[in-house]
Amino acid sequence: MPDFGGLDGLAPPIAACLPTWAETVSHLRRSPAAVRVLRDSAANGRPVVQPRCGVGGHEAMLELLRVLAGAGPGMLSLTIDSHTRLKQFDRAARTLCEHPGDLNGYPLVAHGWQRGRELVAASPVPLEVRHGSPDARDLFAVALASGITSFEGGAIGYNLPYSKDVSLRESLAAWNQVDVTCGLLAEAGVVIDRELFGTLTAVLVPPSISIAVTLLESVLAARAGVRCLSPAYPQGGEAHQDVAGLRALSALTRRYLGPDVEVFPVLHEFMGVFPKSAAFADALIMQGGLIARLGGAAKVINKTNQEAFGLPDAHANTQGIMTAATGASDLFDFVAVDAGRVAEEQHWIEREVAELVEPLLGCEDLAGEISTAFADGRLDIPFSASVHARSAVVPRRDSTGAIRYAETGNLPFSAATIGHNASRLASVAGGSLIEAVTDDIYYFLRKEELRPVRGSS
Question: What pLDDT, in 10s, does the model give residues 278-312?
Fold first, then answer.
């Protein structure tokens, strides 16, 4: 097997087809650097917009990138198909040959790094690989050989929400090799942006759970040598809490990571049940752009007004980019949030995160302690697909729409934190918890159903 940085355990056929490490590093030095886009965005206080996009065929992917580039995104995505995410490379290759339209993303490993370089060359802005794999080593190697300088994912966020029975020890070890390789590249003068998927299950994720997970992944990545991190935060739906969440994310990464790592917060626009009407959906998308700017995000991952109906077409994605960019523009500089409410939210978010992560950060074997903490329920995420998370946390929305903890499971929260959440939920309607949580999940759909009808008094 040829040397390929810090990546061990690559599938032999894939390793044999890769260019040498030296050639890959040389090519990456000439590739569009995602970190430069993020630096510029952070400097001017305007988040860049990035869509999700990925189709199976190579020519179709080239055309999709061309169309979306016309909307002016700051970065573009290469969203990977589900077979490749699960390392089913032969199945992805067969589907690509027989029915490429059946793929729900671009099978980069099947296409190979030469075609990956064609995509990079065709895009006027840097590309990022987005996927969902608990073990992304092969995909990462092909992405590097392609000249792609931004790679999303982490051992927790790309395992527990998606996989039923992949142990955290396995995914933590695999992602450590990805991050070690980023460290080797940084020493060679190539900075790879590592975005961390804080959205998790995208279902009523409390801000402190999202931030705690991305923070732990960030610390592990930084210890492995990563020098550019983009921890992501999911838009929950209440403006003050979302602005506070982004600001808390920035403050906490500065507190726990130190000055040697560049950090660029990212907002994922609302990923829950989306409103069906285009007008209401567009309003939510525009609000996401505004929240990203107010919260200090360097980048916003946009949604489209077709989210309620499945995968969006290129036209809807183009419109979504421009709608989010409008929300993040100076057109809305007159808009402000209640500083007192934001400060209070940020205080409690930072306190909750500290109570979750500080008992772990001093451990010599942080990865092992994270795995044990999830087994014990000291770390947890709601509605997980994995047997390795207890999913004992039950979130609810309070009367403002902010996401709180109705049940905390075995999370190590103080009495003050538990009391704060209980007090914020005291005024919400009682009844069946299942029905109440379901209503909270359909929050924006319910708002859409209650919107005023034209001509009504």
Answer: 999 999 999 999 999 999 999 999 999 999 888 88
| Active-site amino acid positions | 85, 152
Q: How far is CA 173 from CA 10, 14, 83, 344, in A?
A: 13, 20, 21, 37
Q: What is the pLDDT of residues 136-181, one digit of tens each?
A: 999 999 999 999 999 999 999 999 999 999 999 999 999 999 999 9
Q: To 10 degrees, what angle do helices 314-327 and 278-295 make?
A: 40
Q: Residue 16: its pLDDT value, please? A: 81
Dihedrals φ, ψ of 280, to 5°?
-70, -40
Q: Return all residues near 451 (Cβ < 8 A) that are at least 6 apart.
A: 280
Report d(CA 90, CA 97) in Å as an integer: 11
Measured distance CA(407)–CA(85) in Å, rounded: 33
Is 164 buried (19+), middle (13-18) or exposed (0-12) by CB count in 10 A?
exposed
Beta bridge partners of 328: none
- The span from the CA of 181 to the CA of 257, in Å, is 19
Task: Report the predicted TM-score, pTM, of the whole model to 2 decimal places.
Answer: 0.95
Q: Please state, rounded to an integer, the average pLDDT across all residues of the chain.
A: 94
Which residues are CB-neighbours of 78 under 8 A, at least 6 positions away? 53, 54, 61, 106, 108, 116, 119, 127, 128, 129, 130, 143, 148
